[in-house]
Specification:
CATH superfamily of the largest domain in chain B: P-loop containing nucleotide triphosphate hydrolases
Radius of gyration of chain A: 20 Å
Shape of chain A: globular
Number of strands of chain A: 4
Strand content of chain B: 15-25%
Number of strands of chain B: 10
Helix content of chain A: over 70%
CATH topology of the largest domain in chain B: Rossmann fold
Structural class of chain A: mainly alpha
Largest sheet of chain B: 6 strands, mixed
Strand order of the largest sheet of chain A: 1-4
Radius of gyration of chain B: 19 Å
Oligomer: heterodimer
Order of helices and strands of chain A: HHHHHEEEHHHEHHHH
Number of helices of chain B: 10
Chain lengths: 324, 253
């Protein structure tokens, strides 16, 4: 209950961003906010896999990128496309790709799983990179942001930065509540059981391969949502969004924020994107700073930012006890 | 009549070594069938083969007359054949109740019901409570499995097996490392299990085995040396020589 209130409060505060006065609520900040939230959805989807089911995938960018490419391929060249249809096609396409790859990789475990997911993601990368229909290494453009209409009315005018920001925020809220619901259900509890002790789950009678596949497909679908938002905001896709750097970044966000919790994925994505923006504004060698920050925080906070925050809350009352 | 569980010439080879070599035995409902043997006799491998954790190299396993030799472990568990582990193999970071509830959930998995909280599943709550009650863990439901004593972990191990509502249970050394009092409680539990299960009991504690077993199979080097009623096993000279009486012989000589 408490956590639910905290989530609602956090999203309510975030929704106020476009209303804030000049130095903050500008188009630049709304773009940055939408970028952060998009990556948060991507990190949240990977958290389901890595932190909640115990499947460390190093190929998650494949589903993010696949969805982005579906938008680029299906969006009309001369007018705004139907947002509902493009969203469904890109999320569905990502989930379908996750199902296909998942069927092939699910027999492997541990470090082999990491390598095989990476290999398939690289396969997707090179197929897209080397096929002229996808625009090759130059990528492809989306000329018009799609429209989300209900009846005749335009629900969100994605051309406006504030609307796009709210649309992304709503998507992120949907992701948090959707994944939260899954994690609280029997399906989610079975995922947790598989993470803790897959052998015992099989002994109890769970066909764990099917469960892991379900987690893989759900995670792929939500990664697709992030990919859709990325493509629409950017208006441009290129093979780099399918590369292993992208997969690695998402994994870093999840580890940085804290494995196993949705708040951790959120915190990891927010700090990762904002810090890399800030470091880039400071120096050309920003990756040195970023790497140092990640090494430092993983060394000091082995349970991630969220774990560190929780430890802080736990020790404070104890410290008061001692002081007394 | 058909047996609850039947092994026919069950064999498992690891390279040139036959860890279990042509073992045949039959479990009946409401009977405790004990398997004894020295370390390395292949007892735990036999449980792994019967429960589907390891594939057979040769032979057949039948559950209520049906050939299940090629069934996966989850499928066998769903059909009412379950096991406990010799080494504690529970979900350490989870509560005792959640350990049992998860095991019970396997029989009502409903993974598509994502809108319903797992704790709302009445069936798995009820079965988990029953299993905890039966294994003497009713008061420990909220404790983390990691915080239990060794004896309580052994009880949890059996409770999780029972929470899947099996008709045939394979218990791999449920008394291992237990104190005298805990052992007595576990033996009492085994006797109540007999009422509604077919039980395969692997055990090192001879007193316990002779106290509860209806049939005893003696394994040596992966094969069955003898299989009969407890008193016959006790009197069998081969068994005495190979296993029970080894020390006596030394003492006599």
């Amino acid at each position: 209950m408490k956590t639910r209130i905290a989530w609602i409060a956090a999203f309510a505060l975030l929704a106020l961003l476009p209303g804030l006065p000049e130095p903050i609520g500008t188009a630049f900040h709304l773009e940055l906010g939408a970028q952060v939230l998009t990556m948060a959805i991507f990190a949240l989807s990977l958290q389901l896999l890595v932190g909640c089911t115990g499947l460390v995938s190093l190929g998650h960018a494949a589903y993010f990128g696949a969805a982005a490419y579906v938008v680029a391929m299906l969006a009309p060249q001369s007018e705004a496309g139907n947002g509902w249809w493009l969203l469904a096609a890109s999320v569905g396409g990502a989930a379908l790709l996750a199902l296909l790859i998942g069927l092939l990789v699910m027999r492997t475990r541990g470090v082999y799983f990491i390598m095989v997911t990476l290999a398939f993601a690289q396969l997707v990368y090179f197929v897209v990179h080397d096929t002229s229909g996808f625009g090759g290494s130059d990528g492809a453009y989306i000329y018009f942001r799609p429209e989300f209409r209900l009846g005749g009315a335009l629900l969100f005018d994605l051309q406006k930065p504030a609307h796009f920001y709210w649309f992304t925020l709503a998507s992120c809220g949907l992701t948090v509540s959707g994944l939260g619901m899954v994690l609280r259900s029997r399906l989610g509890h079975a995922f947790a059981g598989i993470r803790h002790n897959e052998q015992r789950m099989r002994a109890a009678g769970f066909p764990t391969v099917a469960y892991k596949l379900a987690s893989f497909v759900i995670a792929g679908g939500f990664a697709g949502l992030a990919g859709f938002l990325y493509a629409v905001r950017n208006g441009f896709v290129n093979p780099e969004i399918l590369s292993w750097h992208q997969s690695g970044n998402a994994l870093l966000m999840v580890i940085l924020g804290g494995l196993g919790s949705l708040a951790g994925a959120m915190a990891g994505a927010v700090s990762f994107v904002l810090l890399s923006e800030w470091f880039q504004s400071l120096t050309k060698h920003w990756q040195l700073l970023m790497g140092g920050f990640i090494i430092g925080s993983v060394a000091l906070l082995p349970h991630g930012l969220v774990g560190g925050f929780r430890a802080l809350r736990r020790t404070r009352p104890a410290a008061r006890e001692i002081a007394r | 009549m058909s047996f609850a569980l039947e092994a026919r010439g069950v064999t498992r080879r690891f390279g040139a070594l036959a860890a279990v070599d042509g073992v045949s035995l039959a479990l009946q409902q409401q009977r405790i069938h004990a398997v004894i043997g020295t370390n390395g006799a292949g007892k735990s491998t036999l449980v792994n083969l019967l429960s589907g954790e390891l594939p057979l190299s040769a032979g057949q396993v039948l559950l209520h007359g049906q050939d299940i030799s090629r069934w996966s472990q989850p499928r066998r568990a769903a059909a009412g054949l379950n096991r406990s582990y010799q080494r504690n193999n529970v979900f350490l970071p989870l509560s005792v109740r959640e350990n049992c509830r998860l095991a019970a959930q396997a029989r009502r998995p409903a993974p598509w019901k994502v809108w319903e909280r797992a704790e709302r599943c009445e069936y798995s709550n009820r079965i988990a409570d029953e299993a905890m009650e039966r294994c003497g863990l009713a008061a420990a439901g909220d404790r983390l499995a990691a915080s239990l004593s060794h004896g309580q972990k052994r009880q949890l191990e059996v409770a999780m097996c029972l929470a899947t509502q099996p008709r045939v249970v394979l218990l791999d050394e449920p008394l291992a490392g237990m104190g005298a009092e805990e052992s007595q409680r576990m033996l009492a539990l085994l006797r109540t299990l007999r009422e509604d299960h077919a039980v395969l009991l692997i055990e090192h504690d001879m007193d316990a085995v002779f106290a509860v077993a209806d049939t005893i199979t003696v394994m040596v080097n992966g094969s069955v040396l003898a299989s009969s009623l407890p008193e016959d096993v006790r009197r069998n000279p081969q068994v005495q020589h190979a296993y029970l009486g080894g020390e006596q012989e030394d003492a006599d000589g």
